[in-house]
Write a structure and sequence with these properties.
7-stranded mixed sheet; 193 residues; two-stranded parallel sheet; alpha/beta
């Protein structure tokens, strides 16, 4: 793993593609990163680092009120955050990439992650890069599309570099989905997206 000083030096010299281990180090150090997801490129950060979350929202020009998605590599990473029984929790493991809006425990997440909502968006991901990042960190990470608000979502690293020239990009490939994950309200079953 690169030390933060070496990582920042490398990024400032224009070498912004990172290994999974170095991307995890960047996340742990409070940086915003781009990484491949099931269908589009995403931007992420440590959801428990409020400064990093606010930086991500600022570079996307995304209002705090909207809230953000968290991705995890196993359900144990979110168990203490969400207000679900064990049986309810295991239903978040679906064959298709699905983001669920679920109730969360008060004070378990910064308001800049949950926005103005009484639920948080959670996706249990089987994508190899997301799994590796979350496993390395031992926690969920923020996942939002890699685009400034109002612009097309990045489906390649060239567009990420155009939109966000200073953001490190994690090595890896997009999954086979052609659209972002569907979003379902856990309690009502209503499909939001």
């Amino acid at each position: 793993m690169l030390e933060l000083g070496l990582l920042l030096n490398r990024l400032s010299s224009g070498m912004n593609t990172l290994s999974i281990a170095d991307t995890a180090n960047a996340l742990a150090s409070g940086l915003v990163v781009a990484y491949p997801t099931e269908g589009v490129w995403g931007l992420g950060c440590d959801p428990f680092n409020e400064l990093a979350v606010r930086q991500l929202l600022a570079i996307k020009s995304r209002p705090i009120a909207k809230g953000l998605i968290l991705v995890c590599s196993n359900l144990a990473q979110i168990k203490s955050l969400v207000n679900l029984s064990h049986d309810e929790l295991i239903t978040l493991d679906t064959p298709l990439p699905t983001t669920f809006l679920v109730p969360f425990h008060e004070n378990s997440l910064p308001e800049c992650v949950t926005g103005e909502h009484d639920r948080v968006a959670i996706r249990y991901s089987k994508h190899p890069t997301i799994k590796a990042l979350c496993d390395t960190l031992g926690q969920p990470i923020v996942s939002t599309s890699a685009n400034p608000s109002g612009k097309p979502t990045a489906t390649n690293t060239q567009l990420i570099a155009e939109y966000f020239p200073t953001i490190p990009i994690c090595e890896g490939e997009l999954g086979d989905n052609t659209q972002p994950s569907r979003i379902i309200d856990f309690q009502s079953g209503k499909i939001i997206r």
